Amino acid sequence: MELPLLFILGPTAAGKSQVAHQLALEWGASILCMDSMQVYRDLEVGVGKPSAQERNEVSYRGIDLLNLDQGFDVAAYLQEAESFLDESREKKKPAIIVGGTGLYYRALTHGFSPVPTVDPEIRKRLEGLSLEELQGDLRITDPEMVSRIDFQNSRRLIRALEVKKGTGISLLEWQKRNEPPLISDFQAYFLNPVNLKERIQKRTLEMMRQGWLQEVKGLLEKWGETRVKGLAAIGYDILVDVLQGGLTEPEGVKRIQEETWQYARRQLTWFRKESKYQTLNLNADSSISTVIDSIRQSQERLAPSSPPLLNPLPFSQNLQDISCS
What we know:
Number of helices: 14
Number of strands: 7
Strand content: 5-15%
Helix content: 40-55%
Shape: globular
Structural class: alpha/beta
């Protein structure tokens, strides 16, 4: 029997983590975080990890898996996801996966092709290049990949380049050689707030109030400037500049808000290409309880005689968007 499983998806600051946590409390579910930066220890406020209280209330996986000087990729995430699903089956608990990392969602639900290991010297040379140099190299080395990748993400550029240079085959071609997906039957909801930009601005200010700047100061003392400024997580490099006097705090906050908004737009673009989820269009005054009520109503329409999460449907039908007011 397939494990009952629910995805809560959405761009950053959409409120998906709060919705997932409340659902987990109500249903006695465990949560797997689907975030490429929450896997790192020492990153807390700036990556939106669940609080200590939330971790005491609900079992969370997919966080604090490795140190900042260790590598992590999709294959490693799938291993964590498989372990999480096995644990949930063993304990006979519903499972919720929450996050906005589109590549992980695609790998979980569409399958993933492991790429052969390449010469580490190739990666070492690429890591010494600037973002502009990496972009130029990819345009020449693998031009078809340019429109299929986050062109502002140096880690993604390095991965694409090292695969093409190390194997002679584009990452696009490797991705076509998919293994079966880890998850086939599930329900998924994508939170789409109409006031996303405003939410991002407010959340950035709240993260600063929660001690994000102090977190970065501690990271600098522990890991050094090069490591912290090289993080792919938004905002950490900017706050290093604030601490070193290159930016004022208001200037830094504004830049973080702008970069987060740009990232959220890329997330929206990515998920528009995905399928198998139902969009929940959130109004400016949509509360967590309103969203959860909409999910309950949706499940009742899909399977009116079944309790929530007990008989997930394979999403063979087309679903209509829901407006949450």
